[in-house]
Amino acid sequence: MIKLRVIFLATVLCAAGSLSLLVSPLPAQQPSDRAHQIGGKFMCMCGCNQVLSQCNHVGCTVSTSMLKEVDQALARGDSEDAITQAFVQEFGTKVYAEPPYSGFSLVAWSMPAVYLAVGLVLVLFVISRWRKRPTHAVNTAAAANNHGISPEMLERARLRAARETQD
Amino acid sequence: MDVFGSFALLLAFVCAVYAFIGGIAAIRTRHPLLVKSTRQAGLATCGLIFLATLSLEYLFFSDNFSVAYVVAHSNRSLSPFYKVAALWSGQEGSLLFWSFLLAVYVFSALIAYRNKNGELMPYVGVVLAGVQIFFLTLNNFVASPFKALGVAGANGAMDLVARGDGNGLNPLLQYPEMVIHPPNLYSGYTGFTIPFAFALGALLARYPGEKWIHLTRKWTMIAWGFQTAGILLGAHWAYAVLGWGGYWAWDPVENASLLPWLTGTAFLHSVMMQEKRGMMKVWNVWLVFCTFLLCILGTFLTRSGVVSSVHAFASSNIGNWFVGFIAIILLVCLTAYFKNRDYLKSENQLDSIVSRESSFLFNNLILLVSCIAVLSGTLFPVFSEWFTGDRISVGTPFFNKVNIPIGLLLLFLTGVGPLLAWRKTSLDSLKRNFGWPLLMGLIAGVIAFPLGVREFYSLICLILCVFVASTITMEFYRGAKVIRARSGASFLASAVDLTMRNTRRYGGYIVHMGMVFIFIGIAGTAFNKDVQKEMQIGSSMQIGPYSLLLQNFDTKQEKNYTAERMIIEVTRNNKPVMMLYPERRIFPANQASGTMVAIYSTLKQDLYVVYAGQSPDTQAPVIHVYLNPLVKCIWFGGVVVVLGTLVALLPNRRAVLVLSAVQEPTRVKSLAGTLTPSPTLREGHD
Q1: In the predicted structure, residue A111 carries a pLDDT above the cut 80
Q2: Which is nearest to B561 in space by CA: B178, B245, B173?
Q3: Is residue B532 one of the residues assigned to a domain?
Q4: Residue B356: pLDDT band by 50, 70, 90 thresholds?
Q5: How confident is the model over B494-502, as a mean pLDDT?
Q6: Domain annotation covers residue B600
Q7: What number of H helices and E strands is found in chain B?
Q8: Where are the beta strands (DSSP E) in B288-437?
């Protein structure tokens, strides 16, 4: 038990060490570059399929001009929404880095939750059905009989699997 | 040699057709000679594909610029290393490479089981031949890599020509990892054909028991291991070459590689339910079917141009072929399933909701939800265009928002699942197994929070990582302690002994530990920083603890490219750390350019420096610097995952004990009268 505690202590220390490595020297994020930040919400229209603020193609004039547009709009005092509308008018809805929270795009946002909910209902349904099933021995023999193989062969294969997946 | 290659491919197609049709006839007639000849035809198909692939490589190495594919993807000054990689750098060659890797698997399977599983192998052979026919059709009639270079003559006919030099290889591919990343990924994609063929073959043949699972487990693990390595190598390539400071951008091609990996992972877990308890038979068969279908779907997405991607091959009408193939596979799978679904009835009941069985169900649910979410996100631009007429992009922010919570749930289950007992887990067992790991996780969270880890998902991720690492450590500790008490060996030797006694279980734990490292690395992403600056010689910039001074820049002339190189001195607290040389390479053969990132990597963080080109206004060099914490954990985790997979593939050290354990005279006697033993289950496996 003492050794177990020592191992746990070591694990905690390692974790704490890695956390301190992670955190200590990094200064806080600098949200000063507003254009760069807003650029994270759009795709670069050069066809690279990258987020605007991440497009790094050497000599990519599209991302440069798009970010410049953002800067100019900010200098005029335009809001983020106004900048978004201007880009959508200019490039269409493909300029969004993520679907907007409106209209047909809501389908994209809601689908993962729907999948999870439907999957959860299915799993719970399967569990409830499995809990009502008859016992193991009867079924194993029946299954073996159905397939025309010897139960001891089936059992041997199962025992091997059981050993390989034992607790 | 191009004619030889073409002829070999054509002959391979003929042999595959014979293996397919002859195989069906052999199943119906059970004529031994027909069975043997179709197997030989299968082997011959593979041999001919090997020859065709070698021919194409020969054309690259001999600089034969009368072949269109060689002209498009190679040039004289290309190094031999990359001439190997040129094989899979374009549409036609990569399809041949796919056929080649598939042939390696098919050849290995046909040889490995040449005298075994006589009832099942003809079915498997037919399925494999069917898949080979599809790819050989593409290789021969749709995208042949052996097409001669031609120009339209004066009379309208095509005249064959030969160029003095080729266009060269895409600069993005001229990086060492591109020589090993695609073969790994393709080996993963093609490797899933074997479990698919066995699953479909067993279903068609109504093959008894879980033998197809035992037969294919190692094949699946090999394919999964390659897929994992391929994905991680691709991520490392993107990190080191593309120069945007990250390793995963949720690009459609990246997503395409992740989809079969997710279902393959689900299969590797749920398969234990069938082996151990005879449950989830339908689910497992469909998981294998879906994994294979997703491999083909991924290939379709990459090659059809239906979704835009920086990695994708040029769009072409080849996508229609893949749609047709997917439809045929789906039809065959559905028909086989509905015809033989009674064969897949589960045999056992679930004793408790708090059990290993339930954890596998939830694990599969989470993996499948993730898979479908990634797939629907990838295809959403296409759907949105169909329904609204506007193409709405789905980029990294969407996938991160959707998949981070799913990934954390999965990480939680990674810790919980192995600690739950089969059938039923008692409250005492829950307390005993979860108490310490949960406490460790919470302590880690309490330490991390005041240290500044306040980004919600990162904090949760780190708590869960410590929790999972603790559960795995505890499992090893408990088992090794028992062995140590019996043998008196050292703790480390006992842990190794423990692992070798049940390689599958403990190899699995090593894989889980690797995933923990990967998650730690991903959690670090929340703390990434970057700075971009136009620099003059002698100017400097600061990021985190590092100061970067642009000492000079020069031009470097190499055989295949010219590099503009920045010479940057990195210091920390005024002490020199190292010199970094980020480059921009210009390839004269195809007038393309690419970046070569310079990285100073430590366990703690990566200093990642990109020469982003010259400012269009001032012509001054623009340097983009990133400080990415804990990235090394991801690559280290990947190595651990692959190591764990290799361990799980090893045979158990004391397997003989299993056989003796079941030879109980009373049991054999009581059952012997009811059924005749079948030779099929006596044949060795694993």
Answers
A1: yes
A2: B173
A3: yes
A4: confident
A5: 91
A6: yes
A7: 21, 12
A8: none
pTM of the predicted structure, to 2 decimals: 0.84
Residue B9, in any domain of the structure? yes
Looking at the structure of chain B, the number of domains it has is 2
Contact B684, B656 (CB under 8 A): no
Single residue among B122, B145, B174 that ends a domain in this structure: B174
pLDDT of the residue at B499? 92
Across residues B495-504, what is the average pLDDT? Answer: 91
Of A96, A103, A123, the CB nearest to B393: A96
276-315 of B, contacting A, C-beta below 8 A: 276-279, 308-310
Q: DSSP letters of B366-400?
A: HHHHHHHHHHHHHHHHHHHHHHHSS-----HHHHH
Residue B507 is encoded by which pair of tokens?
């190899």
Reading phi first (left if > 0) and then psi (alpha if -120 to 50, else beta), residue B116 is in beta
ipTM for the assembly: 0.76
Q: Which residues of B fall within a CB distance of 8 Å from A133?
A: 346, 348-350
- Best residue in A45, A52, A58 for a mutation probing chain B (most B CBs within 10 Å): A58
B573: domain range?
A: 527-632
Task: Give the position of tokens 């020589």.
Answer: B179
Residue B368: the pLDDT is 94
In degrees rounded to 5, what are phi and psi of residue B224? -65, -40
Domain boundary (B108, B143, B174) is at B174
The 10s digit of each residue's pLDDT in B634-655 is 999 999 999 999 999 998 876 4
Distances (CA, A) of B353 to B359, B434, B605, B671: 9, 17, 43, 32
B400 CB-contact burial (10 Å; exposed 0-12 / middle 13-18 / buried 19+): middle
Taking an 8 Å cut-off on Cβ atoms, the answer to whether B384 and A64 are in contact is no
pLDDT of A39 > 80? The answer is yes
